[in-house]
Every structure is written in structure tokens, then in C-alpha cells.
Design brief:
This protein has 5 helices and 5 strands. By secondary structure, the protein is an alpha+beta fold. The chain has one domain: Arc Repressor Mutant, subunit A. The strands form 2 sheets. A 3-stranded antiparallel beta sheet has the order 3-5-4. A two-stranded antiparallel sheet has the order 1-2. β4 and β5 form a beta hairpin. It is elongated and about 65 Å long.
């Protein structure tokens, strides 16, 4: 059994592995761009106010004005939040006359939100 000694650059300490042998495994790593875009996606979802918008859009598309009325917020505030979610490719938008409608981008986003909410509620019940 061999253990590698790895130098921790931050603390100049040696890190030793456990005495039992580790199974060799191969990671299939995604490109850095994918990780960066994933981080931006989670960053966009990182506020209760934006999650509140996403939750309402799970049911059906809404125009900015509808969401502002439902949430008793300024149209400009709602519009800024929706734009951030759209830039992260979580929402699609469509102009109809004077109104801009937003909807969940695809089933991946729908599943991500549903799983997130289910996970949080499940953890709360423990």
C-alpha cells in the first residue's frame, strides 16, 4: 500500500491519505465553460425574490405587469429580476404587443426547480 504525500500550498502542511488503499476511478470532467455557466445559473437562482418569480412561472407564462401586480412590486424591479434569469437561460421571453411574456425555458429548468423545492421541503420535515 502506497500513500502519496501532497503538499497543501496554502498551509505548507503535508496531507497524507488514509492507510487503506483507494480504488482507482476516472472522472469524466466537463469543460470549464460548462462549470462557469452552471455557476452563473445557480447565481441567478440565488435570491428568494427570483425563486419566487420562477415558482410562479412554473404554473404558466406571465407578462411582467401580471407578476408585478401579483407580487405588489414595481414593474422595473420585476423586469430586472426576469432579465437576470433570462440571461442565465432559465427563462424564454416573447413580446406580444406592448407586453413581454416570460416562461420557464425547458423541462430541465422545470425539473431543477421542482427538485430544489422538493429537496428543501423534504429536509425541513426531518
Amino acid at each position: 500500500m502506497e500513500c502519496k504525500i501532497i503538499m497543501n500550498k496554502d498551509t505548507d502542511e503535508n496531507i497524507h491519505c488514509a492507510s487503506d488503499a483507494h480504488e482507482t476511478h476516472v472522472h469524466v470532467l466537463r469543460p470549464d465553460r460548462t462549470l462557469t455557466d452552471g455557476a452563473l445559473l445557480f447565481q441567478a437562482l440565488g435570491s428568494p425574490e427570483r425563486l419566487q418569480l420562477m415558482e410562479r412561472l412554473l404554473d404558466q407564462e406571465h407578462c411582467v405587469t401580471q407578476l408585478a401586480q401579483e407580487l405588489d412590486e414595481k414593474v422595473t424591479t420585476i423586469s430586472q429580476r426576469l432579465q437576470q434569469l433570462h440571461r442565465a437561460r432559465l427563462l424564454v421571453k416573447e413580446r406580444r404587443g406592448k407586453h413581454m411574456y416570460y416562461a420557464i425555458a425547458d423541462q430541465h429548468v422545470r425539473d431543477l426547480l421542482t427538485n430544489t423545492f422538493d429537496h428543501v421541503e423534504e429536509e425541513r420535515l426531518k
